[in-house]
Design brief:
This protein is of the alpha+beta class. Helices cover 14% and strands 33% of the residues. The protein contains one helix and nine strands. The chain has a five-stranded mixed β-sheet, with no helix packed on it. A hairpin with a 7-residue loop joins strand 6 and strand 7. The longest helix is centred in the first third of the chain and has 20 residues.
Length: 147
């Protein structure tokens, strides 16, 4: 295989991984336990941040608009690098307050909803990092039903 063709193919593969690794379009649901490497090296266990639960939950149909987005994780996220965004199905951003966290180890992180949510479909997206430095991302689709 010609070298320039091989480099181009590798570049395309890297670009695809970058796009797919950005924000998952599927809801992120992980088991309550941390993920562990199948063969830890020298006693090191690999753990990564995973979403356990959210309010609203993925694919929920709500009869009233939520006043906040709440996320629970397998481990405490680094608040300084955690983002939560909310958008309508058409992509219009909804204003959220700053991301906050209670002090408890199992407490959720929260962003209050500042904008008005009309009936329709929405997606809350999140990005965070835990102590291990590996980023976690996810998307939580939900619907606000007409009153």
């Amino acid at each position: 295989m010609h070298r320039s063709h091989h480099v181009t193919r590798a570049a395309r593969a890297c670009a695809l991984v970058a796009v797919l690794g950005g924000v998952s379009l599927a809801a992120t649901r992980a088991p309550a336990r941390s993920a562990h490497a199948s063969a830890p090296t020298a006693g090191v266990v690999a753990r990564h941040l995973h979403l356990i639960k959210s309010e609203p939950a993925a694919n929920d149909t709500l009869h009233a608009a939520p006043t906040a987005i709440r996320l629970w994780f397998t481990e405490k996220p680094e608040l300084a690098v955690t983002t939560i965004r909310l958008a309508s199905a058409a992509g219009a951003a909804v204003a959220l307050g700053p991301v906050t966290a209670d002090t408890g180890a199992t407490a959720p992180i929260t962003a209050s909803v500042k904008g008005r949510l009309a009936p329709g479909a929405y997606v809350a997206t999140w990005r965070s990092t835990a102590d291990d430095g590996h980023p976690g991302t996810g998307a939580i689709p939900f619907v606000v039903a007409a009153h």
